[in-house]
């Protein structure tokens, strides 16, 4: 009876276990890729101002739009084709606003109750992508201004 032996032992290999250890991560990645688990989702915080809160502030800190600016009014009606053409017009006006660096002109988007949510999101997305543009949402309007940051 040998209790301590120095002879090498035969390695025990479990072939199905080795195959599953190699293929399981590959199948898992394929499954996750098919179910679009690796798509990048983005978010943006949008703040809406309350008039009651603005009135409670001291007069020095109350939010007001400059009256010296003149605004190009873009009124959305809820018609999908018409709203898309107005968005294209506003996009070109924002580009000319950036190119000319005009601080006396602004754009005012007005949304009514029939305007689709996609139009609102497209307007916010258009304002946030361009550099040099400041925008603020107030009631049913979005005011777009040029400001050098």
How would you describe the overall organization of this protein?
The chain is elongated. Strands 1-2-4-3 form a four-stranded mixed beta sheet, with helices on one face. With 149 residues, the chain is an alpha+beta fold. It has a domain at 51-146: Ribosomal Protein S8, Chain: A, domain 1 (2-Layer Sandwich). The model has no long low-confidence stretch (mean pLDDT 85). It has helices at 15-34, 51-56, 80-100, 117-129, and strands spanning 70-76, 105-111, 133-138, 141-146.
Question: What multimeric state do the chains show?
Answer: single chain
The secondary-structure element order is HHEHEHEE
Count the strands? 4
Question: Which architecture of one domain per CATH?
Answer: 2-Layer Sandwich
Overall morphology:
elongated
List low-confidence stretches. none
Q: Quick one: CATH class of one domain?
A: Alpha Beta
Largest sheet: number of strands, sense, barrel closure: 4 strands, mixed
Note the main attributes of this structure.
149 residues, alpha+beta, 4-stranded mixed sheet
Describe what is shown at a glance:
The chain has 149 residues and is an alpha+beta fold. The protein has helices at 15-34, 51-56, 80-100, 117-129; strands at residues 70-76, 105-111, 133-138, 141-146. It has four helices and four strands, in the order H-H-E-H-E-H-E-E.
């Amino acid at each position: 009876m040998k209790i301590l032996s120095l002879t090498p032992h035969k390695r025990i290999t479990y072939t199905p276990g080795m195959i599953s250890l190699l293929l399981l991560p590959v199948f898992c990645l394929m499954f996750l890729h098919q179910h679009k688990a690796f798509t990048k989702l983005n978010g943006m915080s949008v703040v809406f101002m309350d008039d009651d809160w603005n009135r409670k502030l001291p007069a020095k800190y109350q939010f007001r739009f400059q009256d010296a600016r003149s605004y190009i009014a873009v009124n959305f009606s809820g018609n999908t084709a018409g709203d898309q053409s107005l968005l294209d017009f506003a996009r070109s006006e924002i580009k000319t606003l950036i190119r000319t660096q005009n601080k006396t002109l602004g754009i005012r988007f007005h949304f009514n109750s029939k305007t689709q949510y996609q139009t609102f999101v497209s307007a916010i997305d258009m304002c946030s992508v361009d550099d040099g543009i400041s925008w603020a949402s107030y009631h049913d309007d979005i005011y777009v201004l040029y400001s050098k940051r």
